[in-house]
Amino acid sequence: MEAPYLSVADAVATITAHLQPIAEAVWRPLSQLAGATLARPVSAVRPLPPFDRAAMDGYALRSQDLPGRLRVVGTARAGGRVPFRVGAGEAARILTGAPLPPGADTVVEQEAVARESEWVVLDRAYPPGRNIMVRGGEAAAGAVVLEAGQRLTPLEVGLLAGLGVSGAWVVRPPRVLLAVSGDEAVMPGQPLRPGQIWDSNGPLLCAWLKALGAEVAGPVPLRDQPTAVRRFFRHNDLGPFDLIVTTGGVSVGDRDYIIQFLKASAELWFWRLDMHPGKAMAAAGVAGKPVLALSGNPGAALMGWHLVVVPVLAHLMGGTWQPRRLVGQLARPYPKPTRETRYLRAQLTSDAEGRLWVDWELDQGSDVLSSWALADGLAVIPRHSPPLPREHPVEVWLLPHLGRANYAWWGRGSGQKF
Q1: How far apart are alpha carbons 31 and 102 in whole angstroms?
Q2: Which tens digit of pLDDT belongs to each residue from 78-119?
Q3: Against a cut of 0.85, is the pTM above it?
Q4: Residue range 53-133 in CATH 2.170.190.11
Q5: Domain boundaries, the chain
């Protein structure tokens, strides 16, 4: 009986056991931090916010004076000091973001206040702390706000700016060498000969790698020739690179020369995974450098990218990443028994009773990219599962930048991307 293939989790663990995270750090200004990974933790040098502030326009006053008729003694504006104090029976006009005047302990929104010349009337009581952004409420002075190994999105860039940070030490971007094998693959823009197709793997993975902060060399085209594969691995200077990623040439065909080379001339860590599509994947060490060899079919290569390559990149940059997981119910039966674990591109909906429905009707072809753009996540059908009926519970892995989780838009009236 054939031994079970390595699971996705075991594949990631096998690869990362051979890799040390990048130790080199570089300084980047705030404007260049999006997409980078912190090399050192960032602490708040001052409280955030640095003083009690009004969360909306209204009147600052003492809660103990309510309900009542209060005299307005001044106006507190954002961007300056408050030169007065709010005493008993008094209130101050206050604008959003302004410092809370001394003596006041609450802010009542202006819609709840009746203004009568230099007086305001409030007909009910309000508790202390209303509509106030409290000093240090988001971060106390000295608190670690972001840890080393965290990837910085625009949200974290905004948080750093609020802390007064003008730049940070980040992990040196991983250097990745990307190669695409196959005599049939032609760079977009070039004329096609009979039997050829335009290469999508190279531009796809190059864009993904750059989006995650890597520096990419390639994509390098590889002919389906053993000499071309040997020349790529032996004659290229692999020294500057942290990772080599290839597509194609890794299955069981006569012309799958990448896996033949890795078996014969490399330290092969694994070949083939419990992952469909994308089972034909290998990892190895060549001249001390990690090689991740993905399937040549774009949809299958993308599966290996999300489930294996992305966690490996996170490890190289000092972090960890796993997809978020939910449990839903199949919206339609899944009629096939499974040999390997199947990861089905799926769309998610919820009904009035709060049930999460998982619809795998999208095209599941290994060569198909368009259905990835329409998917919300991956429905996981475990290996050796029988056919599954409608409403059967199924785990769903949520992946960033898929379907409705992505910032994507398209022409009015089209209703979909493809």
Answers
A1: 37
A2: 999 999 999 999 999 999 999 999 999 999 999 999 999 999
A3: yes
A4: yes
A5: 8-23+172-316, 25-46+141-171, 53-133, 324-405
Catalogue the E-assigned strands of 228-341.
243-247, 267-271, 282-286, 289-294, 324-330
Report the Cα 96 to chain-centroid distance in Å: 33
As beta bridge partners, residue 267 has 285
Band of pLDDT at residue 186, cut at 50, 70 and 90: confident
Work out the average pLDDT over 340-352.
95
pLDDT at 183: 84
Q: Hey, what are 187's tokens?
A: 């760079």
Instruction: Kindly report, residue by residue over 289-311, the tens digit of the pLDDT.
Output: 999 999 999 999 999 999 999 99
Is 346 a residue whose pLDDT tops 80?
Answer: yes
3 state SS of 224: coil
DSSP SS3 for 226: helix
- Alpha helix locations (H) across 142-285? 154-162, 201-211, 226-235, 257-265
- Single-letter residue type at 107: V
Amino acid sitting at position 378: L
Q: What are the E-state strand segments in 334-392?
A: 342-350, 356-359, 377-381
In terms of Cβ atoms closer than 10 Å to its own Cβ (0-12, 13-18, 19+), residue 235 is: exposed
Regarding the domain delimited by 25-46+141-171, which CATH topology (the fold level of the hierarchy) does it fall under?
Answer: Molybdopterin biosynthesis moea protein, domain 2 (3.90.105)
Cα dihedral 366, 371, 372, 375, rounded to 10, equals -130
Q: Which of 132, 106, 105, 110 is nearest to 121 (CA)?
A: 110
8-23+172-316: CATH topology is Molybdenum Cofactor Biosythetic Enzyme; Chain A (3.40.980)
Q: Please state which architecture CATH assigns to domain 324-405.
A: Beta Barrel (2.40)
pLDDT of 215 higher than 50: yes
Cβ contact 282:293 at 8 Å: yes
At 198, give phi and psi (nearest 5°): -75, 140
- The answer to whether residues 284 and 184 touch, using CB atoms and an 8 Å cutoff, is no
